[in-house]
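INFO  loader      accepted 1 record
INFO  loader      residues=266
INFO  predictor   begin
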Amino acid sequence: MTGQKQALVLASFGVSDAAARAASLDAAAALLQQEFPAWQVYQAYTSNFIRKRLVAAGVQAFSLPELLTQLADAGFARVLVQPSHLTPGEEFDHKVCAAADEAAALFPAGLAVGQPVFAEPADYGRVLDAVLPALGLMPGEELVLFGHGSPHRHNPVYERLQQVADDRQLPVHVGVLEPMDTPNLAMVRERLRQRGSRKLLLAPLLLSGGSHVTRDMAGSNPDSWQSQLVAAGFAVRTDMRGLGEHPAFRALYAQKVRQALAAAKW
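INFO  predictor   done
INFO  writer      dumping tokens
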């Protein structure tokens, strides 16, 4: 149907830090607008906490249900929701898929949801191919990727990424911050010990920087991963950039949108 209004919604957990948001989410939204000019690109945030902080700072921030209602009221006939969430975990299920299901009847030409970054077997290699060249490991360094993890159920994505890295014989070690999930920092340290690793590059397996990176990953406090790894005898270099700050990683979102459009036959 020609002339119908189409919206492409980048749905993310959200980032309160303005610089980190501009370098990751806003840059990803700009890329999607460039790649898909027939669609109007919008952003929605799934974290209530982040939205409240943004609104308090004078930044316009909508939940996905709010934005979908506004788009329907504005006459949009077709919507594609592309999550920026890395994994098909709790936030994706409860905040993206649930909101899309509830709003589907509002759009006469359809509403579809794209895949998270880690959704199919080939995605793990694609992420490694996008991220490793951007990080630039120095000779003798091994990469420790600092992920978030899931608080209430085990998320196997991180172990699958580790397995793909191991199958490729890459010097990559994946861990998660969430204390109830695995692989945790103690498991990462044991891997490093068994390999005889000494020099490390510590980098986020998170879409954007923020407090998890500045405090939990690389903070000066004794509980940060950097502090604990240094205390264990490793030489640690850090890269504070979130995944979304790497152009090759942002391109994965455009690829997911193309897959979703093809699946919906749009």
